[in-house]
Amino acid sequence: MFDDLRELYQEVILDHSKHPRNFRHPEDANHEAHGYNPLCGDTVNVYLKMGHNGLIEDAAFEGKGCAISLASASMMTEIIKGKTEGEAKFIFDGFQKLVKGEDDDFDAGDDTERLMVLAGVKEFPMRVKCATLAWHAMTSAMDGSDEISTE
Amino acid sequence: MNDMTTFDIEKIRRDFPIFGTEVHGKPLIYLDSGASAQKPTVVLDAVQKAYAETYANVHRGVHFLSQSSTELYEASRETIRAHINAGSLDEVIFTKNATESINLVAASYGGANLQPGDEIILSYLEHHSNIVPWQLIAEKTGATVRAVPIDEHGEFMLESYLDMLGPKTKIVAVTHISNAIGTITPIRQIIDAAHDAGAVVLVDGSQAVPHLKVDMQEIGADFYVFTGHKVFGPTGIGVLYGKAELLAKMPPYQGGGDMINRVTFEKTTYAKGHSKFEAGTPPIVQAIGLGTAIDYINSIGLDKIGAHEQSLLAYATEQLSQINSVKIIGQAKHKASIISFTMEGVHPHDIGTIVDRSGVAIRVGHHCAQPLMDHFDVASTARASFALYNNRADVDALVASIKSVQEIFG
């Protein structure tokens, strides 16, 4: 087997893709956005409950996708819960650079190690969109636009 | 059955220089000819030679090179006319691809002939490029688009089609072979029934021309389109066959270049024949390359190519069927050498990425046939498509790489 494939499909990723966390549609969500990847037809809906002071009180998602996109969405919802809007966007910014291979000094504070499991994506440029689809939808949900597309 | 009994597969593979390359340090296993086919040395040489030795613009120049270039360009038209058995050279129009050919017919024939309430009949097997141009012209003219359903095997449902045909039907546009699942449609019956209803038929032959002998007199299509790059020719060249009497009545699609007869500011008159639809400088060298590609497949023989591919399809279907987690999507009785499949618990994109690391190139996604994917209730599939240069070792490599997918996903 190939090292870069093992790196891409780590146990943690396979686990998140088979058992995605926060895979639901919360009734009290007050922000949501739909993400779509026309290349593969994959879709994701991201639901956020934003509290006062821009705090993300709840984050969840539903959708269809590959292991990379489901794992990334699952981990994202866990990580951004309890963060402020600004913090979530800051993490996404760093994460995007990480999976594109543009940032070797990725630092997302306490979440750095967790997100590093997705760093293997940088060896597979065709899969960057899979890894970032839910994150784009998350920022769209916060900004109020309700649909994003990776094309 | 041994490949050698039908034709010399090893010699054919040597005709394609790309098989000398490696992918991720592995020999290339190319199973994506349905998306685009590899090019034999004869085509590459023809393109090189056309640019290096005979190149000039066509039709206008009085100098030597323009004449040489024109002769080669027009010789290709004759090669293609003969290959598809078109009635005349005026029935063979060079376009940039199959999509442009369809858009041309939709805009020109459709634009001139469709009225509000008229119907355009498509099928669930269509590629997006044989759906969207019809939706665009339907919107402009007030016509309606309908689609013939397919059954659980992916077969075109002839009975439903016959029920849909009626006085409102003006155009039927169907694929000859599905790019996504390989179904070969009963094209002759489809065309005859449409003609009985007074409709004209456009056939998307992009997937058929590399695998089957297609004869315009035999199938009776009014329009038949295909692209050059899937039949081992260059990119940027397509063909539109149209019956002369229909083309003669159709308005031009684009203006400029060879489609012009005489221009004044008061009135322009248009060229006749194929020139009317070849605006601007045409894809000269690409057309020459396509003619060479057609000569190449004829030198091997489409009957032999077809037999070889059918034997590979049977072998691959048998091998893939033995893998429990694999489900083949589309099992029509008459199928071209295309296998679309899904794997339990694994998304096609993950399959594609993993098998690629073994040097195996397959297509994953919706194959620009989303209505068909919706029919089978999948967002996408993995697709292996075979061409004349594939062999059983390629199938074995695919099967082995699928086992590595299972290994990773447990």
TrEMBL record, chain A:
Pfam families, sorted: NifU_N
Positions of the NIF system FeS cluster assembly NifU N-terminal domain: 9-130
SUPFAM superfamilies attached to this UniProt entry: SufE/NifU
Highest taxon of the lineage: Bacteria
InterPro entries per record: NIF_FeS_clus_asmbl_NifU_N (IPR002871)
Database matches in PANTHER family: IRON-SULFUR CLUSTER ASSEMBLY ENZYME NIFU HOMOLOG (PTHR10093)
Protein name per UniProt: SUF system NifU family Fe-S cluster assembly protein
Organism, scientific name: Sneathiella marina
Native organism taxonomy: Bacteria, Pseudomonadati, Pseudomonadota, Alphaproteobacteria, Sneathiellales
UniProtKB/TrEMBL annotation, chain B:
EC numbers on record: 2.8.1.7
Annotated SUPFAM superfamilies: PLP-dependent transferases
Residue span, Aminotransferase class V domain: 29-398
Pfam families the UniProt entry points to: Aminotran_5 (PF00266)
CDD domains xref list: SufS_like
Keywords, in A-Z order: Pyridoxal phosphate, Transferase
Keyword Zinc-finger on entry: no
Entry's family note: Belongs to the class-V pyridoxal-phosphate-dependent aminotransferase family. Csd subfamily.
Designated name of the protein: cysteine desulfurase
Organism: Sneathiella marina
